[in-house]
Amino acid sequence: MRKLIDTPLASPVHEKHKPSVHESAIAHVTGQAIYVDDKVEPLDCAYAAIGLTARASGSVKTLDLAAVREAEGVVDVITINDVPGMRDIAPVFDGDPVFVDDKIKFWGQPLFAVLAQTTDLARRAAKLAKVTYEDASPCLDTEVAHKDKRYVRPPLQMVRDGATTQKSAHRVSNTFTIGGQEHLYLEGQVSMAVPDEEGMLIYTSSQHPSEVQKLVAEVLDWPLHKITVDMRRMGGGFGGKETQAAQWACIAAIFAHRQKRAVKLRLPRQTDMMATGKRHPFTNTYAAEIDAKGNILHCDMTLLGNCGHSPDLSDAIVDRAMFHADNAYFYPSANISGYRCQTNMVSHTAFRGFGGPQGMMAAEAMLDDIARKIGADPLSVRKQNLYSADGTDTTHYGMQVENNLLHDIISTLENDCDYWQRRAAISEFNANSPYIKKGLALTPVKFGISFTAKHLNQAGALVHVYTDGSIQVNHGGTEMGQGLHSKIQIIAAREFGVALDAVRVTATRTDKVPNTSPTAASSGTDLNGKAVQNACQIILENLITFLAKKYDTQEENITFDSGYVGVGAHSLPFAEVVQDAYMHRVSLSSTGFYKTPKIHYNRDTGKGRPFFYFAFGAACSEVEIDTLTGENRVTRVDILHDVGTSIHPEIDIGQIEGAFIQGMGWLTTEDLKWDEQGQLISNNPATYKIPAIGDTPSHFKVKLFDRANAEDSIYHSKAVGEPPFMLAISVWCAIRDAIASVSNYQVSPTLNAPATPEEIIRSLRGVSTTQGSGNESS
Amino acid sequence: MISFLLNDTLCQIEEEQHARQTVLNYLRDNKKQCGTKEGCASGDCGACTVVVAAVENDSLKYETINSCIAPMSQLHAKQVITVEHLADGDRLHPVQQAMVDHHGSQCGFCTPGFVMSMFSLYKSRQVNTDIPLSRHTVNEQLGGNLCRCTGYRPIIDAALESCHSPEPDKFDHTSLLIKQRLLALQDVNEDYLPRTEQALANALKKYPDAKLVSGGTDLMLAVTQQHQDLGHTINLSSIASLQTLDVTDTHLIIGAGVTLTRLLPELEAHFPPLAELLTRFASQQIRNVATIGGNIANASPIGDLAPALLALDAHVVVKDTKLNERSIPIRTFFEGYKKTQLHQNEWLHRFELPLLNSNQIFDVYKVSKRFEDDISAVCAAFMVEIDDNKIVKINTGFGGVAATPAMATVFERVLTHKTWLDKATLDEGISALNQAFTPLTDVRASAEYRQHLVTSLWTRFWTLSTSDVVVMLDHSEVTDA
């Protein structure tokens, strides 16, 4: 007989309650963490670059690639006509060709690709194409598209007919625009395709390996079983690698297939920013009927999402904007319309919050307006309109807000951050400061957790226990920095009662766990954690059955803790039990599966329970603005956020802080600009400014609201990726508050997002104009 | 041939074309050291940060650079330290350990760059242990490193903890040896890297079209972003006579090759507002490399030093291939978009900034979308000389309002001899400035907003120097941990 391993791993380590670090932390700080571009390339590897269109619409009249082909080091050049299989790589509805097909969709659309001996040679060659265009005038404006009924998908309404006899005392209404957002993951888009005997192995930086597998198979016209996708880690995703990573894998795969050699395609930053989709810009219009106390009686909202040229995920994104157009507030009667406007821009895509933030912005803008209309503090008006019990606890789409933590969270935060004292101090400061004005806002978040496309709410896992007691875990989720693998490691270690280092979570691979959902919608831990738990429990059952029989004891008497297995009075090292089980032919490997319960939604009626549960939170932000220049800074932020029972508090706090700052960037400095021809001109980090270290407020306190999820989620935790992003709306509201102070809070200013210094000056001018002409009233 | 140490290993580069390669590509492609990352290849994100150690005043100085836009020629006789080299065997460097302990990495892609910036801070703190480490200093040192995941708080905590009172690290054990090895490296003798102005003159005669590189933080973008071939380049970084810094009774004299980092203490002493502006000039990585000469010769319409030099009425002294000098007032130096009075056979030698008198008030303001590491929408500098409440002289300098850095000459003329402490002076200034420029709309700001800033920054200058009213946000006011 072959010998088993001599020294079993996993001597008992009692570190279950010690805070653990990110599973890759040491690799990160030493430069040993491998991203796709760091992988040792096969010797025959060639490198690709993309040629982009320089028009936003029309078509290509002539495309002369002779100079490209003849350039130094060039191996191959391809266009849409060289795609062997399917040309359209759209994720849900058609409209995203691999390269420009008959019509040009946007400025910066990939037109051809070139393969060369080095990346530099490929990029130089790509510049040599000679292109002439048949011009057509592009549509670049959301409202123009809406007026012309140019939609990528049909409009939708969510209506609640809650007509009351009560007559409204006031009406507030406004229209404002919200800018999009560039993901600016630090690691740009990259893929490497390696042909092998089985077919093709794809390394990609993707949140959705299974979709990359499917699309590569389709463009090559191969069955899926010939493609394997391997994804160890991304250098950031944020939604920008959910659908947007596939194109580069497909192009690399086409070249790899044609040339029978490995091919890497890494986009330079500027190409990445021009050729990939962003957060949807929105134009939101709202009108609320309110009673004399500021309670909402009815509200109308029209949400126009600028989807760019194709549907991509826009149907679901505008849906989510509509689902969150209430944020935390009860609308007794409501009419929410969502439009998916088509423009000649890059197809806008998933980005943390997935439309939710844009919808919530309408609600929060409206609540501020109501407060100023009736002369009350915005916090008071927010509180009185929150979802409550007894008839004020159902959303406009008919879902009951159960286990509502909004009241508790807001009142705790309000006290902890001294809201009312600071409100008084700020009023006094503003009265005595002619140029510098301060603003304050406390805003809540209620965010629905689940994919609204029901079938995506499933996950698979594969767990192996090896004969030394070490455990390898694989699941369908992807690690993009959010700490998913760290949480999964904790879950598996806890299930088997072993030390963390006994568990290794390996690269996501489509040949280990198939048919996976994207790691998106904050669902990574909820779905994959449960699937992993399920796999662990199947193996545990095998072990328990074996031990109960062997030691002639009840199954309940068997425990797994601290690296030991308790069997009645015996305490056996886990590895020993595993070896024993192996010798007795017990299966030590299992798949696991999970599907989210309870959820249903009818898109035709706009009613249902699309979400398993809600995550809640609140933030209070204080800002200063310089009314001469519009310059501004966030001086203090306090956050209280609900993650249920935290699986890893440090990781959860990291997600909350990071999401908040990213949201703050979206609403302040991150300013996407297109020129009149439709070319993105904020196309690099020199012209597009995400928050830098000095933008982090000097007072920045985040606390977890410690309450278990009432739903049966993994260890009763809650999803954390997206919900805290929208806490940053408090910054935008605080800036509006500071602007309103120049009118002694009589005028609710129109402030478009992002609130750049320039936009703040524009808003201030609007306030001083309005002041003279008197307020709108009804 | 240029010689340098890559961590502990002596490396030599023979061919000129490789000397023009970026340090980042050399590390990743030639040396397969992939710990250093490319985020943007334009010096805007800091993922590629490495530390360069050089002998200065008989000791090693550790400074960060953006390896993505640094030509290899910049490394001659220096040690380049990468993230792979920080740990001492299995023992993490204190800055690495602090990043792990504080959960300072999420996706990890920016982390090597942060670690290197923090390492440089650590080394500089070893020299200055008496000054408490402030959040402000951390912001300055790490402002050129972008993180999209964490929101920075854990990174700030890691820096404050690890760099507050740094203990000796593994580099202290080997610093003497490294210093000796660097000093022993052969003198370079290449046209692309002259060591004297005579050698520069000879090289320029040989290659009259050669591009002069003095930091190269803007020039290299043509290579990394536009994939252009620069042709012959001459790197000025090894010419000692361009690195002088002197203070006379009347002037601050700055060698054209002085980096912004080296310039900072002198500005703090003599022109505090300009020093403050300089901390917002790009990032620490850029300031460590970029030179005053490079910034002015580049003639960007926005470059933030130019407006200040205009308002200060500084002169630049240029030299030609015969080593003759001529002095040019900055106020006449800029001729058009990226066009200056500098001839092809000339280079910038030094700047002469008249020191301020007690009856002169000088200030300079920058407005940008982001406070740190952003290019100005408008930069405005004012210098007023007052005698008995009368304006004797008023100078201006504006960036971002015209094709070149520009003065508001009509404004200067109108206000001269006016009463300083008179509200009418403010208003007349505003009217004059309203007519002064026709700025453009671009990605950073609209023409309308730029026009608004021109007058509101004048309002700020006048108000600040005539009253106690707070008229500017205080970004230095941050709580220290």
From TrEMBL, chain A:
Top enzyme class:
oxidoreductase
Per the UniProt record, which EC number(s) apply here? Answer: 1.17.1.4
**Alphabetical list of InterPro entries matching this protein:** Ald_Oxase/Xan_DH_a/b, Ald_Oxase/Xan_DH_a/b_sf, Ald_Oxase/xanthine_DH-like, AldOxase/xan_DH_MoCoBD1, AldOxase/xan_DH_MoCoBD2, AldOxase/xan_DH_Mopterin-bd_sf, Xanthine_DH_Mopterin-bd_su
Boundaries of each Aldehyde oxidase/xanthine dehydrogenase a/b hammerhead domain copy?
Answer: 30-137
Q: Source organism's superkingdom?
A: Bacteria
> Per UniProt, what is one GO molecular function of this protein?
xanthine dehydrogenase activity
Q: Which Gene3D superfamilies match?
A: Aldehyde oxidase/xanthine dehydrogenase, a/b hammerhead (3.90.1170.50), Aldehyde oxidase/xanthine dehydrogenase, molybdopterin binding domain (3.30.365.10)
Keyword Chloroplast assigned to the entry: answer is no
Q: Keywords for this entry?
A: Molybdenum, Oxidoreductase
Q: Which family does it belong to?
A: Belongs to the xanthine dehydrogenase family.
**Protein name in UniProt:** Xanthine dehydrogenase molybdopterin binding subunit
- Recorded source organism is Fluctibacter corallii
From TrEMBL, chain B:
From which domain of life does this come? Bacteria
Record-level Gene Ontology MF annotations: xanthine dehydrogenase activity
Q: Which SMART domains match?
A: CO_deh_flav_C
Q: What is its EC number?
A: 1.17.1.4
**PROSITE patterns on file:** 2FE2S_FER_1 (PS00197), 2FE2S_FER_2 (PS51085), FAD_PCMH (PS51387)
Q: State the top-level EC class.
A: oxidoreductase
Q: What is this protein called?
A: Xanthine dehydrogenase small subunit
Q: Which organism is it from?
A: Fluctibacter corallii
What would be the name of the gene that encodes this protein?
xdhA
